[in-house]
Amino acid sequence: MILSPLPMALGASTNTTWQAVGISEFMATNRTTVLDVDGDPSGWIEIFNPTTNDISLSGWSLTDDPNNLRQWLFPNVVIPDAGDANGSDNFLVVFASGKNRATNTAELHSNFKLPLTGGYLALVDNKTNVVSVFTNYPAQSPDISYGRDPFNPNFAGFFSATTPVILIQPAAQIFHPPSNFPGPAAHLSRRLICNCRFPIAR
Questions:
Q1: How many domains does the chain have?
Q2: What CATH number should be reported for the domain holding residue 84?
Q3: Residue-range definition of the domain harbouring residue 151
Q4: How far apart, in whole angstroms, are the C-alpha atoms of residue 142 and residue 27?
Q5: Distance (Å, whole) CA 101 – CA 99
Q6: Are residues 76 and 128 in contact, defined by beta-carbon separation less than 8 angstroms?
Q7: Distances from the Cα of 72 to the Cαs of 46, 95, 109, 149, 197, in angstroms?
Q8: pLDDT, tens digit (0-9, with 9 covering 90-100), for 137-182
Q9: Read out DSSP for 88-107?
Q10: CA-CA distance, 148 to 159, in Å (whole number)?
Q11: What 3 state SS string does 68-80 have?
């Protein structure tokens, strides 16, 4: 198994270990993997809370623009701690649809879409600290997600199977870039413990 660290042009991360909330996976263009509440195959961003504390995302934001850290604000939603008995509630999905929906009792939709050409994606806390970031993620392909190894987020690559928390049952997945993808290769293993996940308001 070959691993490529993020500093080698795979997109930088502020996380050195999975000890803080971060962006675990995203899909820039979703065509067949999952439909949003409107029946549209929107792109999506998965947020992971590996900590032993519930994390409120009230006032936090997602952005694809390093010059606009407050691009899309989360409502008052909480990601439970990693010890939740369900084993999956510590993941949260935001659809990157451009529909701009921030209601804590419904699906979350950012006000931007992720480009296929690659770019910037960050999670920002309520004090405008960038807590998780891909500064230069590579060009993407439809229905192929990109993300970090859950055991060492210094490594990132393309998933060989899409794994948003709203899609799958508990499973093990391997992810890596197809041979026709540009950029360095990264082969990453991931254990997934996912079920349906909706925002929790507290």
A1: 1
A2: 2.60.40.1260
A3: 1-202
A4: 8
A5: 6
A6: no
A7: 15, 12, 9, 25, 20
A8: 999 999 999 998 767 778 888 877 655 554 333 233 333 433 333 3
A9: STTEEEEEESS--B--TTS-
A10: 9
A11: CCCCEECCCCEEC
